[in-house]
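Predict structure. Input: Pseudouridine synthase, 241 residues.
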Amino acid sequence: MSERLQKVIAQAGIASRRKAETLITAGRVQVNGVTVTELGTKVDSKDTVTVNGVPITKEQLVYYLFYKPRGVVTTVSDDKKRKTVLDYFEEVPERIYPVGRLDYDTSGLLLLTNDGELDNRLTHPKYEFEKNYVAKVKGIISNNDLKQLRLGVMVDGKKSAPAKSKLIRTDKENKTSIVGLTIHEGRNHQVKKMLAAVSHPVMKLSRESYGFLDLKGLNPGEWRRLRPHEVEELKKATGLA
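Output follows.
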């Protein structure tokens, strides 16, 4: 059975499907020795596919839940020589990569996998996976501010989807608040921009949960494999089961 080239590359653990498309259009993929740049190209098991001159093989699919510390970049490599999330997975033989991203100064739950199809679904806004964040912000946040966040605020010229928001506690002496915010969108710096839109800049931010997954039992810098029923649940939720 033939499949789209970008899907085959993603299933081999080389990159997510979107990144695989970039590799193809950049002329870095060959099929049977011929460079292919068309995204609609289909291949089957008889075809030899190479990326950057290296033949691909289908890896065993693996899934990890990681407690990302602050001061770590969510990339496979970094030209500024900063610590990346993959530095914590040196013993893992598969070519894994992060699902979505967390900012350098944001801590919390991050998924890593070599399952390009699942990565593609999890990062697609259609599936509306809820992500729960806890933020320390400047100022004492009001009920009206929380209401605005629930209704949606302007972020980069576009109104955000309604969010769940709650006040966890305030520190009147230092004029700061701890706020819980649950969103299902994934725009760049979204939580920071939403809180800035109600005049409460973020001082510290952590992602506490992703859908039904949380950080229970993990400390910053630690990870675990997803359990089979958790993988199955993610696949069901994204229509892959």
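The chain has a mean pLDDT of 92.
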